[in-house]
Q: What sequence folds into this?
């Protein structure tokens, strides 16, 4: 259920919507009308005229982006004959507005024109130029560049002594240093009130409260969040502001995610998108559409998600909106995985990798580095200010001492020179510190890039695992009918050639089953049962198997550390992983393979290190990033699951794996496995199937949504002399069983995964009504997971797909059923 506080938030959102949609954008429209009036009365081409024109463009950008761009072009038409800095400021403003309205590609020419600010520019014009550049950088996702221009805007705003520019410049630092910027915004408003200028910035109060609201949410101050929500609702009801209303919808959606209320969140996303369309801001529309599509994917509304994705692609494609395209690519990738479109998922996965290398998002390390950059900038400005004050002070002293003798004047000038040298020295040190901070920023950006690349690889691996598990499950169903039909044909074959062909089909089916098992191992369908093991002993025991797998043409050397290398591993999965790594080296043409086992970090308690190094062909660096993908191979088609299984085993054990490869120099794999206390233990098995005599005359029930599987299993059971009832769904099975006397059905074979009522619910219904004596659970999912579920729901046995006639007979023989009397048999009702 959705929490009560969230229902109140939803009610407040609807109240704000009803109270403001009647007067959309009233606050900004009123602001635009006021500025237009003042602008029209100001002499054209002056600094003051451009000042009011830029404020008009900012106000219009919150109501109608097209009007704002038109105002920017009107300003540009007068910029060539205007004061220094006007042309750069106009170009920067158009660069920002066109970026938001049409995309970075359309704005590229304006951005290039705004790169140079001429010397001697008015502080007001310089401030607007820096502020517009900061907003344009923000739209492109370059928050480091945004912070750099924002700091310049703040400095120029102080020189211009303009309260509105102070507020706007301070806001622009929010992405780079959110905590400091929120406090700075509050201080700017407080300073304006102290100077008697509160009225000048009153129209910005709504945005101030919204930023404070976000800060309170990050600080988890629930009381502060509730208070600010009420204040903003009252402000919106009285003033009206389309963009702020849409932003409030987005904030309320984040609260709804806390309550996992997807339906109400979708409603607010639709309302927010409609409001952003009124404004005409392409970035905001794309973000709202992408978030709607993402939520639709997570809610399994795949057709709606595809429609929203197509609309968003049309909105951003070819416009250079890298940030929007990256988020949209992630949504498209998740949609392709959910729709099991493997080809599209693979293509989008490569596009995600390429886009990730081009864009580096800001994180904590980058924010810390940018904060150091700000401190260095402040230190440099302080040094410059101290230098100017020292020069001014010494100049006044020179003026007073002009009446003194020449010797005194000479001494004074020497003092000035000394102070000037000291001040320049301070300035030089401050600049040097700034250079060091810039280098630190670059290093942080590189580290952030590497971290994000790893996160993308993890997300991609998880998605591929989900797809692999689904494919393996579906193929196991297909293989069940194929193997069953082939086995029955073999029993009926009269000629040796026919038997050979059926045996060939059965062999191919079993090979397909093994392939599906490897897919399930990669996807995590076989959970490990870890025990504390000395990997030295495990590897020694495996040496004969490893030597046999690579043949006599490969030298296999084992290097073991003198200290025990203990780790928590599932021994069977570890042996499979090691065998796959060694066979990979052999297939790469290696003549020598070295296997090394040692404690991680030299300490037995910290886990174990397994290293497999060879002198084979090696691969190029760009290919090394993909060698763990399923079915990726540099050899020949039909291979490519060995290393994918290795990666899945390492991931499920909580370890890490790295690969270093050079073409012609060989490849080295290093696997780190944890050494923490093993909490899990091997799961106890159910009683194994026996070869006891199979009773005949049983009444059996087969429940499976796959028609071929039902038919094959029904034929198996009829061949053993049993009667068979079939049901294509869980609902039909329960209805059929309830129409018979309790216990009349001796055995029910129930599929685990079915639409509607699944196998677990069918088993519970049959048990609750005592409708059958024995229940066998069937599934194409991993065998270990099937066994666990069978134990949990109280089934008597299980069948892992694909199965053969012998498997069915063995399970029937293990159930301990008696031979029913003739009067207990069921006459199958007519269809």
A:
């Amino acid at each position: 259920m959705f929490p009560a506080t969230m229902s109140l938030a939803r009610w407040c959102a609807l109240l704000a919507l009803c109270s403001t949609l009647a007067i959309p954008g009233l606050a900004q429209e009123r602001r635009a009308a006021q500025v237009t009036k003042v602008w029209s009365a100001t002499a054209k081409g002056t600094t003051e005229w451009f000042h009011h024109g830029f404020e008009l463009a900012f106000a219009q950008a919150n109501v109608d982006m097209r009007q704002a761009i038109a105002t920017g072009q009107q300003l540009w038409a007068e910029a060539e004959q205007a004061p220094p800095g006007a042309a750069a400021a106009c170009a920067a403003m158009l660069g920002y507005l066109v970026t938001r309205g049409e995309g970075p590609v359309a704005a590229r020419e304006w951005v290039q024109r705004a790169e140079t600010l001429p010397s001697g520019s008015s502080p007001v014009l310089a401030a607007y130029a820096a502020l517009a550049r900061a907003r344009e950088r923000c739209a492109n996702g370059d928050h480091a560049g945004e912070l750099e221009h924002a700091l310049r805007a703040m400095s120029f705003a102080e020189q211009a002594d303009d309260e509105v520019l102070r507020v706007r410049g301070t806001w622009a630092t929010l992405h780079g240093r959110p905590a400091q910027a929120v406090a700075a915004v509050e201080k700017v408003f407080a300073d304006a009130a102290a100077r008697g200028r509160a009225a000048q910035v009153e129209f910005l109060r709504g945005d101030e409260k919204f930023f404070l609201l976000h800060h309170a949410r990050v600080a988890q101050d629930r009381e502060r969040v509730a208070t600010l929500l009420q204040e903003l609702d009252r402000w919106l009801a009285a003033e009206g502001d389309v963009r702020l209303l849409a932003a409030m919808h987005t904030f309320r959606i984040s609260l709804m995610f806390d309550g996992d209320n997807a339906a109400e969140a979708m409603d607010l996303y639709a309302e927010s998108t409609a409001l952003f369309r009124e404004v005409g801001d392409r970035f905001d529309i794309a973000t709202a559409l992408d978030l709607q599509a993402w939520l639709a994917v997570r809610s399994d509304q795949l057709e709606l998600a595809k429609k929203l994705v197509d609309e968003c692609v049309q909105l951003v494609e070819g416009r250079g909106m890298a940030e929007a395209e990256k988020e949209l690519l992630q949504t498209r990738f998740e949609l392709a995985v959910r729709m099991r479109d493997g080809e599209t998922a693979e293509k989008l996965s490569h596009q995600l990798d390429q886009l990730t290398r081009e864009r580096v998002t800001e994180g904590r390390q980058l924010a810390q580095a940018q904060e150091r950059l700000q401190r260095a900038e402040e230190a440099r400005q302080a040094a410059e200010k101290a230098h100017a004050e020292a020069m001014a002070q010494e100049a006044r002293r020179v003026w007073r001492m002009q009446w003194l003798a020449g010797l005194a004047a000479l001494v004074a000038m020497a003092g000035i020179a000394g102070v000037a040298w000291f001040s320049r020295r301070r300035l030089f040190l401050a600049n040097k510190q700034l250079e060091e901070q810039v280098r630190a920023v670059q290093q942080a950006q590189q580290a952030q890039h590497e971290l994000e690349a790893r996160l993308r690889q993890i997300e991609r691996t998880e998605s591929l695992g989900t797809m692999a598990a689904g494919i393996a499950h579906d193929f196991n169903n297909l293989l069940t009918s194929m193997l069953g039909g082939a086995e029955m044909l073999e029993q009926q074959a009269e000629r040796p050639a026919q038997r050979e062909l059926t045996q060939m089909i059965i062999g191919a089916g079993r090979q397909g089953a093994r392939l599906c098992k490897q897919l399930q191992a990669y996807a995590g369908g076989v959970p490990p049962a870890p025990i504390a093991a000395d990997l030295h002993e495990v590897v020694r025991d495996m040496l004969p198997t490893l030597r046999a797998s690579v043949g006599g043409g490969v030298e296999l050397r084992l290097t073991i550390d003198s200290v025990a290398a203990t780790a928590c591993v599932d021994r069977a999965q570890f042996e499979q992983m090691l065998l796959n790594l060694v066979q990979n080296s052999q297939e790469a043409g290696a003549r020598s393979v070295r296997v090394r086992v040692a404690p991680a970090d030299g300490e037995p308690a910290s886990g174990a290190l397994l290293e497999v190094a060879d002198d084979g062909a090696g691969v190029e660096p760009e290919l090394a990033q993909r060698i763990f993908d399923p079915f990726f191979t540099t050899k020949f088609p039909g291979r490519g699951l060995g290393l994918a299984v290795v990666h899945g085993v390492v991931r499920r054990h909580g370890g890490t794996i790295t690969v270093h490869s050079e073409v012609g120099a060989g490849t080295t794999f290093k696997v780190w496995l944890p050494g923490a206390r093993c909490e899990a233990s091997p799961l106890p098995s159910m009683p194994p199937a026996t070869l006891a005599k199979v009773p005949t005359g049983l009444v059996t029930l087969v429940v499976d949504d796959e028609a071929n599987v039902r038919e094959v299993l029904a034929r198996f059971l009829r061949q053993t002399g049993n009667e068979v009832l079939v049901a294509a769904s869980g609902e039909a099975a329960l209805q059929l069983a309830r129409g018979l006397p309790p216990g009349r059905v001796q055995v029910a074979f129930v599929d685990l995964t079915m639409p509607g009522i699944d196998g677990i619910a069918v088993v519970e219904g049959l048990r609750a009504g005592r409708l059958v004596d024995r229940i066998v659970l069937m599934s194409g999912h991993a065998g270990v997971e099937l066994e666990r579920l069978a134990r949990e729901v109280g089934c008597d046995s299980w069948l892992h797909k694909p199965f053969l006639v012998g498997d069915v007979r063995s399970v029937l023989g293990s159930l301990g059923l008696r031979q029913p009397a003739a009067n207990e048999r069921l006459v199958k009702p007519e269809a």
